[in-house]
Amino acid sequence: MSQPPSFRHRTFRRRCPAVALVTAVGAGTLSACAGLAAPAQVADPVKVALGAAGGTRTVQAGDKLKVTAEGGVLTEVTVTDPRGRRLPGGFGADGTFWTSSAEIAPATKYSVVARTKSDRGGVGAAKESLTTAQPARLNTLVLDPGTQDTVVAVDRLLTLTFDHPVTDRAAVGRRLRVTTDDRTTGSWDWTTDRAGQDQVTWRPAQRWKPGTAVRLRAELDGVDSGGGRYFSGDYDLNFTISRSCTDSDLGRVCGKVHVGDPAGITPSSVRGKDDHTTGIGDWHDRRSPWRAKQRPRVEQLTPFRA
């Protein structure tokens, strides 16, 4: 008589999905399989708040932004403007707050992402935003040369004249950069014109070389020129130093003039000046080298004197 088949005793366990870490706005939530063990304690959300470094809850242009955490610490804070530029800053000693090292600009929407860790170990991320109001007072400036892609004489200097006083010259100077295609070096010099207006001039260390392509980039949008008077835009200017030669017979500056084929050489009626009406200058190559040729642009980080 055959024996009944024997069965091994098996213990069936309910399968449980892997533990998943879900990051949510405010706090992280840890999910576990119910019924096998006591559920893990859910960490309390970390409350993130925005305010001014001076202690007020209302943030205005010119303030330094402060991000605070209640119920935990901040592990990472990123503040960006619509252009993607980050607002620099640093954490407090205990990690419960972050303060920007730069002032915030007017009429700007800032996006804030704050990553947190609660007192019970939960992690999370809070997303906030703030928009500053339009400035009540503005400052503007006039560029010299004042025409884009113009050709100027070798003794012409780059000058910015401001409509209102600039009391924070260092803040403005940090946003001014001059680049050339031949590594020309120079420096900024602050003065006051005859009308009493503040102006800053970029002076090359040596006389301009004929044909040099120059570019000014003034990223002044949102910069406080002093006393709460802001700039509301950036400024760009490209210009070229004229090509000239010396007429040894006349002892004057001369230039190429298109008087026929081939071009002739005519003495200049005004030394060093390119004047289209009198036909002075290299009119065979009137396009700016920034557009006509792909020359490498070398940025000169020139010293700034406030």
Account of the 3D structure:
By secondary structure, this protein is mostly beta strands. 3% of the residues lie in helices and 38% in strands. The protein has helices spanning 169-173, 289-292, and strands spanning 20-23, 28-31, 47-52, 65-70, 72-80, 89-91, 97-100, 109-118, 123-131, 141-144, 150-152, 158-162, 176-180, 186-192, 198-204, 213-218, 235-241, 245-247, 252-257, 264-267, 298-300. The strands form 6 sheets. The protein has a 5-stranded mixed sheet, with no helix packed on it. Strand 1 (20-23) and strand 2 (28-31) form a beta hairpin. The longest helix is centred in the middle third of the chain and has 5 residues, at 169-173. It is elongated and about 70 Å long. The N and C termini lie far apart (110 Å).
Q: What would the keywords be for this entry?
A:
single chain; 306 residues; mainly beta; five-stranded mixed β-sheet; four-stranded antiparallel β-sheet; 2 helices; 3% helix; 38% strand; disordered C terminus
| Distance, first to last CA | 110 Å
Largest sheet: 5 strands, mixed
Number of strands: 21
Give helix % range.
under 10%
The global form is elongated
Rounded radius of gyration (Å): 32 Å
Low-confidence stretches: 1-42, 246-306
Q: Which class of secondary structure composition applies to the elements?
A: mainly beta
Number of alpha- plus pi-helical segments:
2
Q: Strand order across the biggest sheet?
A: 11-17-16-13-21
- Mean pLDDT, rounded to whole units? 75
How large is the share of residues in beta strands? Answer: 35-45%
Task: Give the SSE string.
Answer: EEEEEEEEEEEEHEEEEEEEEHE
